[in-house]
Design a protein that fits this description.
The chain has 328 residues and is an alpha+beta fold. The chain is built from seven helices and 17 strands.
C-alpha cells in the first residue's frame, strides 16, 4: 500500500465527499474456534466478548499483565464458537504468539489466518451505494458482518472502518482481491493510500498503535476505558483497577500556523508537560491538529498549550473529540 496515489489531500477529500478504496491487506488475522473460544477471548481481550452477537463486531485492546497495551483489535463472531480477530500489521506475529501462548487450558484452536485474506476498505458517504452494484444481497449495518459475494468473489463484508465515514471493510481470498478492487474503482471509488488513512483517522481522533498506544501506555490514560470491562478479568484488568492515571491523551488544534509531528514536546504555562503522539495538517479544517499526552490538569477542552516544532513554539489548545465533524 503506497503512502499516496494522486496526493494525500485529494484522496482525503474524496473519502469525505464521495468514496475511497484502501488496500489494507497488510493487516493480520487470527482465527479462534472451539467450545472455549468465547471464554478464551474473554481472558485475552479487554472488552466483553460475550456481548458480541452472531455476525457482530467489537473493538478492544490486548494488554500485558501490567496494563500496557500490546495492540488494539477488531473481533468478529462468525459462528457461535468461531471468531476472527484483525490485528495491526506490525504487531501481528507478536499477537499471534500471545494468543497461542495463552491457549493452554482452553478447548480452543488458534490459527494464523493472515495468508488467507486480502483486505480492502471502501469508505465514504457513497461507499455503500457503490458497493450495491457488485454486492449479492445487502451490506451489513455498522458493527455487523456477513458472508456475501462482491464482484462474484466470496467475501466477509464488515460494517467497520478507520476514517470516521460510513462504509465497509472486505476480507477477501487473495486470488480475488484484484477483481474486487477493479470493480469498485470502476464505480468511481478513489484509490487512497496510507497518508490519507492517517489524516482521516486523526481528524476523528482514532488511535494509531505505535503512536497513541504502546506497551508503555495503558488504555485508561489513552481514553479507552470504555473498552475495558474490568469485571471480565482479562489479562491486565487487575493492574488497571489500581491505576490512577496522571496523564491523559487529548486532541488539540493549532490556533496559528504550523504542523505538529510525533515527538514534538508539549508545553503548559511554558513548562515541558507532554509529547505529541500524532500530528498532521488537517485537509478539512486547514489547520495543524494532533493528539498527545498531557497532565490531567491540562486535559480539559479549551486549555491553552504550546507545541515545540523544531525549536519554534506554536500556540494550540486542547479540543473535544472528534476534531472534525460533518457539519464543519
Amino acid at each position: 500500500m503506497p503512502v499516496q496515489y494522486e496526493g494525500i489531500r485529494q484522496e482525503h477529500m474524496a473519502v469525505r465527499a464521495n468514496a475511497g478504496l484502501f488496500d489494507v491487506s497488510h493487516m493480520g488475522e487470527i482465527e479462534t474456534s472451539g467450545p472455549d473460544a468465547e471464554r478464551f477471548l474473554q481472558r485475552l481481550l479487554s472488552n466483553d466478548v460475550s456481548k458480541i452477537p452472531l455476525y457482530g463486531a467489537q473493538y478492544s485492546v490486548l494488554c500485558r499483565e501490567d496494563g500496557g497495551v500490546l495492540d488494539d483489535l477488531f473481533t468478529y463472531r462468525l459462528e457461535p464458537d468461531r471468531f476472527l480477530t484483525v490485528t495491526n500489521a506490525a504487531n501481528h506475529e507478536r499477537d499471534y504468539q500471545w494468543f497461542a501462548r495463552h491457549a493452554g487450558g482452553f478447548d480452543v484452536s488458534v490459527s494464523d489466518a493472515a495468508d488467507s485474506y486480502s483486505m480492502l476498505a471502501l469508505q465514504g458517504p457513497q461507499a455503500r451505494a457503490m458497493l450495491t452494484f457488485h454486492l449479492e444481497g445487502e451490506a451489513p449495518a455498522r458493527m455487523r458482518t456477513t458472508h456475501s459475494q462482491v464482484a462474484g468473489v466470496d467475501c466477509l463484508v464488515c460494517g467497520t472502518g478507520y476514517t470516521g465515514e460510513d462504509g465497509v471493510e472486505l476480507l477477501i481470498p487473495p486470488r480475488g482481491a484484484t477483481r474486487v478492487w477493479d470493480a469498485l474503482t470502476g464505480e468511481g471509488a478513489t484509490p487512497a493510500g496510507l497518508g490519507a488513512r492517517d489524516t482521516l483517522r486523526l481528524e476523528v481522533c482514532f488511535h494509531l498503535y505505535g503512536n497513541d498506544l504502546s506497551e508503555n501506555r495503558n488504555p485508561i490514560e489513552a481514553g479507552l476505558g470504555w473498552v475495558c470491562k474490568l469485571d471480565t478479568d482479562f489479562i491486565g484488568a487487575e493492574a488497571l483497577r489500581a491505576i490512577e492515571p496522571a496523564d491523559k491523551l487529548v486532541p488539540f488544534a493549532f490556533t496559528g500556523p504550523g504542523i505538529p509531528r510525533q515527538g514534538n514536546p508539549i508545553l503548559v504555562d511554558g513548562d515541558p508537560a507532554g509529547v505529541v503522539t500524532s500530528g498532521t495538517l488537517s485537509p478539512c479544517l486547514e489547520i495543524g491538529i494532533g493528539m498527545g499526552y498531557v497532565p490531567l490538569a491540562a486535559s480539559e477542552p479549551g486549555t491553552k498549550i504550546e507545541v515545540d516544532v523544531r525549536g519554534k513554539l506554536r500556540p494550540a489548545e486542547v479540543r473535544e473529540r472528534p476534531l472534525y465533524r460533518k457539519e464543519q
